[in-house]
């Protein structure tokens, strides 16, 4: 998603993706960029409180939703000392009333940093596998840290 697009009701109007809705906190610039970078690259763990709050402001209550964090490669978990997206998902579940659900596993450990769009698409098609039985008709919110 190009977050420079106009959002209506917190949904990018331009994107055509294989899911119902998507949410974006905002453009990755200024103070938001600094907060994300501190969390992801400088292991400022407390930043997840603010990031989860911002997400909750966009999503609202998620009662009945299963919040599924996209698994981080273990190399990055070791580098940070924690699973940044897992912490964020857990806090979002607390705030929103959603249920934290670890339903995916990494299939491959490729990174997308520096990859072009086509390579990212190919990597994403192979990156994850379902590790938990999915409930038909259930609402799932996939949480990624783009």
Explain how this protein is built.
The chain has 146 residues and is of the alpha/beta class. The chain has one domain (7-143). 38% of the residues lie in helices and 15% in strands. The protein has 5 helices and 7 strands, in the order ββααβααββαββ. The strands form 3 sheets. The protein has a 3-stranded parallel sheet with strand order 4-3-7, with helices on one face. Strands 1-2 form a two-stranded antiparallel ribbon. A two-stranded antiparallel sheet has the order 5-6. α2 crosses α4. The chain is globular, with a radius of gyration of 15 Å. The N and C termini lie close together (9 Å).
Kindly state the percentage of residues in helix.
Answer: 25-40%
Strand order, sheet with most strands = 4-3-7
Radius of gyration: 15 Å
* Tally of strands: 7
Give the uncertain stretches in residue-range form: none
What's a quick, concise take on this entry?
The chain has 146 residues and is an alpha/beta fold. The protein has one domain (7-143). The chain has helices at 30-41, 47-59, 74-80, 84-96, 117-127, and strands at 7-8, 11-12, 65-69, 99-100, 104-106, 128-130, 139-143.
């Amino acid at each position: 998603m190009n977050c420079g697009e106009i959002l209506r009701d917190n949904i990018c109007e331009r994107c055509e993706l294989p899911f119902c809705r998507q949410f974006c906190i905002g453009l990755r610039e200024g103070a938001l960029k600094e907060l994300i970078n501190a969390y992801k690259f400088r292991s400022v763990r407390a930043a997840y409180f603010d990031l989860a709050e911002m997400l909750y402001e966009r999503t609202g209550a998620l009662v009945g939703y299963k919040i599924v964090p996209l698994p981080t490669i273990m190399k990055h978990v070791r580098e940070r000392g924690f699973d940044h997206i897992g912490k964020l998902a857990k806090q979002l579940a607390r705030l929103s009333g959603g249920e934290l659900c670890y339903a995916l596993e990494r299939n491959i450990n490729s990174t997308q940093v520096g990859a072009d769009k086509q390579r990212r698409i190919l990597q994403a098609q192979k990156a994850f596998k379902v590790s938990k039985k999915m409930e038909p008709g259930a609402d799932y919110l996939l949480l990624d840290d783009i």
